[in-house]
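Supplementary notes for students who missed Thursday's class. We covered one full example, reproduced here. Read the sequence, then the structure, then the short commentary at the end.
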Amino acid sequence: MYQLINGALVNLDSQSESKGNILLVDDLPENLKLLTELLSSLGYTVRSVVSGSRALKTAKSKLPDIILLDVKMPEMDGYQVCEAFKNDPDLRDIPILFISALDEAFDKLKAFQVGGVDYITKPFQIEEVVARLEAHLTIQKQHKRLQNEIVKRKEIEEILYQSRSLLSGILNTALDGIAAMQAVRDPLTGDIQDFYCLAVNPIVSRVLNRNREDLIGKLVLRELLENLSPDLFNRFVKVVDSGEPLDEDFYYPSGDGCWYHYVAVKLSDGFAITIRDITTRKQTELALQEANHKLELIANLDGLTQIANRRCFNDYLAKEWQRHQREQNPLSLILIDIDYFKRYNDSNGHQGGDDCLIRVAQEIAKVPQRPTDLVARYGGEEFAAILSNTNMEGALQVAADIQTAIANLAIPHDNSDVSDLVTLSMGVASQIPTSERSPKDLISRADQAMYTAKNRGRNRAIASLIR
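Structure (token representation):
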């Protein structure tokens, strides 16, 4: 906020600390006096000289943050003074604002050609002068910060380079993969754009199937990580920015190995990573998980048909529902009913009915081939098939394969109204689970589709309409 006090424009918000060191160059003392008073009252430190030669000497004694330079002066005009500053390595980075009564386009163009950063015409408004000064002072401060950052980075790079020979021996003899990465940041925002490789040992290069020469000193990490896992790059960025380490397993087929464990920790403005092949251990874990899964299935078998029972069905559907909700993949369910089974029981006896149930159950269980699919006895003469990561088209194909398999069994059924062999009516439902739905919705849709199949003549599979 500015106010005119005793004939001078004063910034009421200014603090005692100088807002910038300004050098005024003008051969007219009255111009120097006016600008000096105005700018000093606004919190700037102001020095003034009346010639170009004095400007050069004054600037060398103490570098100003910015220069306000008149054009028309004896000995050296403003353009010549500016050229002299730009030819001096110690002075060339000081921003120069021309301030002159000359307002022709030619004059302004020449000011920029010789290295000026701005041009203010007289008579001027102090608010305009201050606004332009502050803008260029801000740019100058950012430039200095950038220069300091560059210097710091070069110092870090030099230290890392000197230590590389010492690390080389350790890296090349280690049994684990070891690499060190340096962050490459956007100079304006400071955001990490990529990492370049400071050091990498032969094990890491072998895992990545790259020569060490293709990795060290190269910006390759982001590309490699995007091929491995889309979010892994951002997680390494978080290691550098937050200092929190990463410690986990990952799957990546490479040579004889496919499972690895890595630990990534912050290292200066980058990170170090250690990688160990855990394929053998992981295969053992997976085999144990598979064995436990089989034991769990055995514990949940239907006593008659020796396939999964209703309790197993309920537990597995709930678990798969949650998994598919997280992964946003389709989950399908087929409910299956033996057509006119009561008549079959009546004519063949309970033992004959049990034999039929066993043969049908075992045959249905053979159709889905993936270990994540489950066929269960749903109740009485009804069965169910849970198909993981399967859309409606895939589920209908499985239903068709089940019909074919049961037809090939050719179990006689003399009391059926649709065939002289045992047939099935099936309802098929498929959806991507959401938090608004539950497994009961999937069961209800499949159940309704199954009864639609019965009402339409049995011996068929009907797909539930998407709601």
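Commentary. Residues 14 and 55 are 27 Å apart (CA to CA). Residues 1-10, 12-16 have pLDDT under 50 and may be disordered. If anything here is unclear, bring it to office hours.
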